[in-house]
Every structure is written in structure tokens, then in C-alpha cells.
Amino acid sequence: MAFKLYNAPQSTCSQRVRFVFNSKKLPFEEVKLNLLEGDQLKPDYLKLNPNGVVPTLDHDGAIVVDSTVIIEYLDEVVPIESFTPENAVKRAQMRALMHFIDEMPAAAVRVPTFNLAFLPRFQKMSREDFVAMAESKPLRREFMLTMGQTGFPKNEMDAALARLRRAYERMDLEIERSGGPWLLGKRITLADVAVMPALVRMHDLDLANWRDLPRIVTWFDNIRAQPAFKQTYYHGSLLSERFPHLREKSPA
Ligand SMILES: N[C@@H](CCC(=O)N[C@@H](CS)C(=O)NCC(=O)O)C(=O)O
Which residues of 131-162 are buried (b: 16+ CB within 10 A; e: fewer)? Predict the structure, then answer.
């Protein structure tokens, strides 16, 4: 079995997939795309993933897109170190949580990410180049045009942070209900993997406002202590490692 993963080091969606590969100790060829240079919008890549986003998995020539679909697929074809509950009800709960995660924290985290990390680069572009770049994105055109070259306004930033906060509270409730330490109980599942990059990103942006939720603090420590974590977050995977202006703002 040969796996090729088209991804980007700093991409939260890619980090989910790398974490599953690394946990299963599965070798994979990593193709790194430069998202700011637009590698994801090149015709050859769009043939693999018409959404123009990473990650994309090539498994012996079979193409699988979308990170939640990819991690479920990987767990199905390589069930060692499984992240999927055997019980059908728990499996349904896991999938429902993954939908919630994609709709809430995974979507909300893009607003502070773009405003704080990527905006300075977009501000250097001419208006024509910026609009052309935004319009070339199949999935994120409107998102980019709404952000524009001045960034998301304060009310949109506040709304994104509020959505993230509600997601931590929902995670807290799930951990309390299941008895923890993971979202669905004693075993780590794909729901934990799916939400991990959003919390890592917020922590990296110095915006981790879950310190009053001890179950989330423990959850975050636990996931960072997983052996696969270090391998997944190799140097360059955190925005603060790539964008010096973020380091200047965050405390040492
Ligand atoms: N639902 C998709 C979303 C993928 C996605 O948004 N990928 C981002 C990186 S995390 C991307 O490739 N962005 C490139 C762009 O916006 O042009 C998934 O989970 O795979």
C-alpha cells in the first residue's frame, strides 16, 4: 500500500491527517504545497482536488479528499491503532461531533488565522492581484473577498472567538458526559483528532481562552503528549514559526 499526501505543514486540515498517519506509524510520501504561492490552485492539483484546498490523499492511485473523510478512510483501511469506536451508537456520536467541529471551531479559526497571520501579505498585493487571487479560489472566494485587504472587522473577529469559546464549552460538556479524558471517553477517537488543530492554532496565536475549563486544559495536555503530536507538528507547522510578526506579539 502506498500513500501520498498532498498537504501543507501549517494547514490545520492537513495536521489531522498527519496525526492519524503518525499514530498508526504508517509511512507516507508527503507532498508539501505552498498555499500562499497558490500551488493548490494549479490545474494539475485541481484535477485531484477540484475544491483547490489541501489535504488530498492518493492511496495507490485512488484519490480521497476532505480531511474528515480522509481520516475516516485511513482508519477504515488500516484499522491498527483504531480511532473509531466499535459501538455503533458511539460511532454515530463521534461522527456528529466531527460535523459540529467542521461547522464551528474549524470554520471559526480561519478568521483569526487570516486576520493575524496572512493579512500583512495580502495587504502588500495590488487590488487587482488580490481580487484575481480571491476569485481563483473555488471554495474560499467569498471568504477572501469579505476579508478584503483590510481584514475582517472587529464584529466578525468577536463572533469567531465567541464561536470558538462555545466549541470549547461543548467539548467540556462531552468530556464530562463521557467521563473523559477524551471527548468520547477512555479512548481517543477521530473527533479528538478533528478538533486538535483548532486548539493548537488558537494556542499558537496566543488566544487560548479555555484556561478556566480544567477538562479542556487536561485534554490539551494529553493530546500534546501523544507520540504522534511531535511528528505531526514538525518545525514550520506552527504559524508563529513561519511568521515572525506573530512571535513579536506573543509572550516568550
Ligand atoms: N473541508 C476541507 C477544508 C480544507 C481547507 O480549507 N484547507 C485549507 C488549509 S487548512 C486550504 O487548503 N486553504 C487554501 C486556500 O484557502 O486557498 C477539509 O477538511 O479538507
Answer: bebbeebeebeeebeebbeebbeeeebeebbe
Contact 186, 220 (CB under 8 A): no
Atom of ligand 1 nearest to the CA of 55: 20
Q: Can you give the three-state secondary structure of 214-240, one letter per residue?
A: HHHHHHHHHHHCCHHHHHHCCCCCCHH
Contact call for residues 226 and 20 (beta carbons, < 8 A):
no
* Residue 85 alpha carbon to ligand 1 centre in Å: 27
Please state whether beta strands 62-65 and 29-32 pair in parallel, antiparallel, or not at all (unpaired): unpaired
Q: Which residues of the chain have pLDDT under 50?
A: 251-252
Q: What's the pLDDT tens digit per position in 101-135? A: 999 999 999 999 999 999 999 999 999 999 999 99
- Which pLDDT value is given to residue 249? 55
Q: What is the pLDDT of residue 252?
A: 39
153 Cβ contact list (under 8 Å, min separation 6): none
